[in-house]
Each structure stands twice: as structure tokens, then as C-alpha cells.
Amino acid sequence: MLLPPAVQGCRSTQSIPGTGVHPLHHSVLKLSNDALARITELVLPSLAQCGVELYGAEWDGQPTPPTLRLLIEKPGGVNLDDCAQVSRAVAAVLDAHDPISATYTLEVSSPGAERPLHAPEQWLRALGSRVNVRFRSGDADTVVEGRLLAVADDGVEVEIRQRRNPSSVHVAFADVLAGRLAVEI
Fold first, then answer.
1. DSSP 61-112
2. Integer Cα distance of 56 and 30 in angstroms
3. How many domains is the chain partitioned into structurally?
4. Residue 163: left (phi > 0), alpha (psi -120 to 50), or beta?
């Protein structure tokens, strides 16, 4: 039985009953990468029917209850109705296939204005946008912020300005610690 979604901001949340874990059990519920990939495969057709794309899927196995988080996007942006519609559609699919054997919360939201950049296709979509990249540089961490000029198989190139003079920095994907879109002020 699905409970009606509790909607906040551009986030839709539903508690989904399952079997196997008592709600007061306080251990972290693990979900393998294969299981998350299977869940992603199950929900993609529903997302397409709702007119949105999957930006990312995350599993937070904390016991309060565990949360399956789906980040969605579409041209022009995601609104509250999109999140609620996707939440209902995806909950029905997950109930039918029951890929998670415990009670968990389904959360559907936009990745936000300063969305994280993980996968190469996310970096490609950000071409021309302002980005913030934290990367390993020798024994230290370095942060650059500027316009994303290029994405290659091995890394990204970011245009930075030092004393009003533009230059570019190449950052290898192997050295990237974190990347995100940066809001232009």
C-alpha cells in the first residue's frame, strides 16, 4: 500500500512498504550498484512517459528510513507537478517489481541549480556553463571556477580569469574530487 506523497518544494516523497526489515531496525541498508542499475532500468520508461529524463539515482541506506532518490530534469526545468507525477508513476512500477526488500522512502526532485556533475554526459550537458571543480593537484586540493570550454575522454577544460586575463586549465577526470554547476552572479 502506498501512502500519498508528501510534497515539499520541488520534491515528492512517498513511503513504500516492503518486507524484510523492521521499521525500528537501526542498521544501514546496503543496495548494490547492480540493484541500483536494475531499479534505474525499471523506472526509465515511466520517466519517458512523464516527459522527463533521469539525471541521477542515489541510495541513502540510513535507517530513518532508507531513501531512494531520483533526480529528474527536462528542458525548461522541472516543477512540483513533474515531481509528483513521476513519484506516483515510479512508485507503481517499484511496487509491482518490488526490487527493494525493505520499507524505504522514494524521493523525486530536481538536481538543483548547482547540481553535481559526475558522469561524462552530465559534463557534456554543462558545456558553456559556469562550473566549480575541486581536484587533486599534487598533495593539495585546488578549486577552479569558470566557463566549461571542453569535455574530452580524459578530462575537462575550464576557462578561468586571473586579473581579468582569461586562461584555461585542463583537469583530468582521474583528479576530479567534485564538480558542480555554479550559479552566475
1. --SSS-EEEEEEE-TT---HHHHHHHHHHHHHHHHHH--S-S-EEEEEE---
2. 18
3. 2
4. left
C-beta of residue 140 within 8 angstroms of C-beta of residue 133: no
Alpha-carbon gap, residue 5 to 91, rounded angstroms:
10
Residue 154 vs residues 54, 93, 169, 175: alpha-carbon distances, Å: 24, 37, 13, 10
Helix (H, G, I), strand (E, B) or coil at 151: strand
Q: Are residues 172 and 81 in the same domain?
A: no
Domain housing 135: 120-181
Sign of CA dihedral 58, 101, 53, 87: negative
The model's pTM is 0.72
Per-residue pLDDT of the chain (185 residues; tens, 9 = 90+): 233 344 333 455 555 544 333 333 445 678 778 888 999 999 999 999 999 999 999 888 887 889 999 999 998 899 999 999 999 999 999 999 988 888 889 999 999 999 999 888 899 999 999 999 999 998 999 999 999 999 999 999 999 988 888 999 999 999 999 999 998 87
Residue listed under C-alpha cell 552572479: 185
Element (H, E) at 122: helix 120-125
- Say which amino acid occupies 40: T
14 belongs to a structural domain: yes
Query: Which CATH number covers residue 94?
Result: 3.30.300.70
